[in-house]
Every structure is written in structure tokens, then in C-alpha cells.
Design goal:
300 residues; mainly alpha; HAUS4
């Protein structure tokens, strides 16, 4: 995958832009593989084919060796010994004896039958894992090829999505950088710009105006005090104060006199209290008789 380079970077670096365009157009494919000439491409294809064939042979050999170990119990003892010798010779590079090799070749049909059974079971399991009942061991290669083709197309689609995502990311980064620069400018203008200076000057002016108004209010307050409390008013208030003090003294004297009379009244004892109660009853009876007389006079 060729990395994306922003257009702004390419425009600011013309020489790098030329090199980058040459690489992306003439030298490399979209997946970053090299664009070769016809002869080079043919040689590369031949090498790829040979490598693929060698890899397939190695995989087949590895599978056969692994499965030979699993099917040893299903074969006759003599044939198992020959297979062990064959596997050891393959690992060590030794050569089998002619009679062992002949016996091994005679037992090949039996070995192939057992191998075919095991490999068919493995292929069936693999087919079940790949597609369930729709895929059989015989259709498995075509199914795998289809899967690989689908995987390649999805890789291409993923590459396109990544390309679009990178472009959008670069665009968002540019917008973010622009936003940050504008924000910094606004902060500078707000804190140190003309509007900030104007606000500070206006605040100072308002502070001076408020101080002057406060001084004027104090002057008016003292002037009103002088107007209200003139000499006549002060004299009248002083005379009224003396009058209140005299009234206070008289009230105190009357209070002390009333307290003395109350003490004298309390000194007479219970007899006086009974007389007072009897006198109150007589007054009540007199009032009742008076009301009755008035009623009788009204009747006549």
C-alpha cells in the first residue's frame, strides 16, 4: 500500500512531487508492488510458478508423511517397518535396500488406499468447516479459489476505504489546524485586542463617574442636613427635649405616689377588703333596684 501524501505538501515541494508521481504512476502499483517490463514480468511469472509448484510439492510431501504416521496401525507389521525405514531414510538422507524398496513398492496400493481414506476424511472435515453441506471434498478446491478471489476483492475494497479514510483524516486535520489558529487569534483579540482595550477604558471611565457621583451625593447630604437642622429647629428640639425630661420627672413622682398609696391600702388588712367586697355588692344591688324602678316608671 502506497502511503498518501497531502496535496499541500506536494505543492510546497515540487521536486518531491515529481519523484512521488513517477513512483506512483510509472514504478509502483497501487499495492506497492513493482511494475516490471515485459521480460521482467515474464521472468517473474515463471519464478512464481516454479515457487508455487515447489511449495505444493513440499506441502503434499509433508501431508503424506504426517498421515503415514497416523495409518501405521492399519497396515501389516512388515509394511509398518518398511515405512519407518522409509521415513527415517527421508529424514537422514540414507537409501533403502533394494528388497525393502521392492517390498515398499508392492505395498503402495494398500498404503495409497489407507492414505486416500484418511485424506478424504480430512478433506470432508475441511469442506464442512468451509461451507457445510454445500461443499464437498471434490468441490473444495473451487470453493477455496472462490474464497481467495473474494478475499482479494475485499482487500482491494479495504484498501480503497483506507485511502478514503486517510484523505478525510487529512482534511479533518487541516480543518482542525485552521480552527485552532482562528481560536488563538480570537483569544489574542479578546485579551489584548482593541475590544479588550475599549472595555478596560470604559470600565475605568465608569469607575471615575461613580466616584464623582458619590462625592456629589455626600455634598447634597451635608447640604440637606444644614438646611434641616438650622438654628430655629435646633432650639425647638432642645426646648422639646427639656419638656420631655420634665414630663419624665413628673411621671416618676406620680408613680412613686401611687406605689405609696398602694402600700397604705395593703396595710389595712382583710377587714378593709371585706368592706370593699360588701360595698361592691351594695352597688350592684342599688344598680339592680334602679333598673327595676326605671322599668316600673316606664310601665306607668
Amino acid at each position: 500500500m502506497i502511503p498518501i501524501c497531502p496535496d499541500e505538501v506536494l505543492e510546497r515541494n515540487p521536486q518531491f512531487k515529481t519523484v512521488f508521481q513517477n513512483l506512483t504512476v510509472n514504478k509502483l502499483n497501487s499495492d506497492a508492488s513493482t511494475k516490471l517490463s515485459n521480460e521482467g514480468a515474464k521472468e517473474s511469472e515463471d519464478v512464481d510458478k516454479r515457487l508455487t509448484t515447489i511449495r505444493e510439492d513440499l506441502v503434499k510431501t509433508k501431508i503424506i508423511r504426517q498421515r503415514l504416521v497416523h495409518i501405521l496401525n492399519e497396515l501389516p507389521p512388515d509394511l509398518r517397518e518398511v515405512i519407518d525405514l522409509y521415513l527415517c531414510s527421508q529424514n537422514s538422507g540414507a537409501v533403502l535396500r533394494k528388497d525393502d524398496e521392492a517390498f515398499f513398492l508392492e505395498g503402495l496400493p494398500l498404503i495409497c488406499k489407507a492414505l486416500n481414506k484418511v485424506i478424504l476424511e480430512d478433506a470432508t472435515d475441511l469442506a464442512n468447516m468451509c461451507g457445510g453441506n454445500d461443499v464437498t471434498p471434490y468441490t473444495l478446491p473451487a470453493h477455496i479459489a472462490h474464497r481467495l478471489q473474494s478475499l482479494q476483492s475485499r482487500r482491494t475494497h479495504l484498501y480503497n476505504l483506507r485511502t478514503q479514510s486517510l484523505k478525510k483524516t487529512l482534511h479533518l486535520t487541516t480543518l482542525l489546524r485552521t480552527q485552532i489558529s482562528i481560536t488563538i487569534k480570537l483569544i489574542e483579540q479578546t485579551k489584548h485586542g482593541l475590544s479588550s482595550r475599549a472595555q478596560k477604558s470604559q470600565a475605568k471611565h465608569l469607575a471615575l463617574v461613580s466616584e464623582s457621583l458619590e462625592g456629589k451625593v455626600k455634598i447634597m447630604y451635608f447640604e440637606q442636613l444644614d438646611r434641616i437642622y438650622d438654628d430655629d429647629t435646633t432650639g425647638a428640639l432642645a426646648f422639646y427635649k427639656e419638656h420631655l425630661e420634665d414630663v419624665k420627672v413628673r411621671l416618676k413622682k406620680q408613680g412613686r405616689k401611687a406605689e405609696g398609696e398602694l402600700e397604705e391600702y395593703e396595710g389595712f388588712g382583710e377587714g378593709v377588703k371585706r368592706d370593699v367586697v360588701r360595698y361592691a355588692k351594695v352597688l350592684d344591688e342599688l344598680e339592680r333596684v334602679t333598673v327595676e324602678v326605671q322599668r316600673l316608671q316606664g310601665d306607668f
